């Protein structure tokens, strides 16, 4: 009788712990790519938290431009491990190719989710800062560095709206369309392949 509860608790712990670490790896990878300030306390925390996994991989996998191949491989392996463990707790089986395809889909979905939340939080904080309610905040600085590569092209394309910045809304719509049209089919294909 207690088995479903135990499986649910195990699945919750797996998803939470792996999800938090994957988010830390993703944020570190993006912040490294945009050359975020390493003195920012949040960036410093992300570097310290992810170095034990990335340091050994960096000796094997080089960086390509600003992108860390070690971080990408680590995220893929950790995501596949999470999915494999979840499959085992649910009593399911899996195939290697299904696991890899589903892991790629899950990582893309994570990227969209993190960027969407970051854009929303940055927009809200910018309204507070515009009202004079905030001084320097390391989290706000980090959000600005994280979202700027997505918002900058939208701002260049959109016409001047008299001080109203619609670029966050446009980018969120594009991210959600990408999620629906590109990421969801990859995840569905992974699920089909997982069943063998």
Automatic annotation (TrEMBL):
Keyword Secreted: no
GO CC aspect terms: membrane
Superkingdom field: Bacteria
Transmembrane segments: 12-31, 67-88, 100-130, 166-186
Pfam family, one: CCB3_YggT
UniProt KW keywords: Membrane, Transmembrane, Transmembrane helix
Keyword field contains Translocase: no
Family in the record: Belongs to the YggT family.
Protein name: YggT family protein
Organism: Thiohalospira halophila DSM 15071
Lineage: Bacteria, Pseudomonadati, Pseudomonadota, Gammaproteobacteria, Thiohalospirales
